[in-house]
Amino acid sequence: MLSRLLGMFSKHLAMDLGTANTLIYTRASGIVLNEPSVVAVDVIKNKVLAVGREAKEYMGRTPRRIKAVRPMRDGVIADFEITKDMIAYFIRKVVQGLRIVKPSIVICVPTGITQVEKRAVVEAAQLAGAREVFLIEEPMAAAIGANLPIHEPLGNLVVDIGGGTTEVAVITMSAIAYAQSVRVAGDAMNHAIQRYLQDAFQLVIGENMAERVKILIGSAAPLPQALVAEVSGKDMVQGSPKMVRVSDSHIREALRETTNAILSAIFKALEKTPPELTADIARNGALLAGGGSLLKGLDQLITRETHLKVIVDSDPLTTVLRGTGRTLDDRKFFSRVYRN
Questions:
Q1: 274-296: pLDDT as tens digits
Q2: Nearest Cα to 314, choosing from 295, 294, 296, 328?
């Protein structure tokens, strides 16, 4: 009786626990949180100093005793204790005034997640205050968020490019017919830009600067008009401040290996998919979601190489979360998509 009463008053949450960002959705208010998955820790006192947006500003700017860490790596938990603290902080921020009532949470996870990693996600959420935890695979959530006909016997190709992983999946009849999770995505793009600038210009830059360069002038295909940006960092040889002018063609070259890895995953999915589902995909095209899909010209590159029509979701940063949230509205209807 008590559990039923608590269930009536509990807040149902959907969480996209991503490598780069964590988003939370509630039925009543929609998206209520969108913050970087970063925690700043005092390593001497073993104390959390900041979480989310504030903690990200610490990256590359902290003294030795303070460490800004990303506890999620490649879409899964890399540091259990810090992840637990981060989830608890975000839940408290969203569920105010309901401390005695534990929320139910649906969390999206990569398709390549192991049973051990699944248990770690569930346990971290439970220790952070969740009453019950459901898991949904990211490409399935993206398909639901984009209103694809997942319940029909039709092939739907989803390419979800997040911070830590790129998820390529073929979905039909509320199930995943084929899926591949490759640990090449937004973070790998940032690291590729850092390596390229170090090799080509002897310029050392931080991850935040690499991300800004990617967003500003990064592209996967030639642009109608050339873009140039001034990039500040440290001279690798002299250690002094240095600024160089970088063009979109430089960054496109830096990202070539990453974009080729994403293309290879798509080709492999098409190769492994049964002919009937492949015919559906040829007619309907592929859905592109996740923050990495915002890379300029990526949809054009995929179309040119695969001859598929590519539809970029209207708000690719929230596609997965919107789909996860939709399952909250009718848990019975979407019960088949949960993985635990």
A1: 999 999 999 999 999 999 999 99
A2: 294
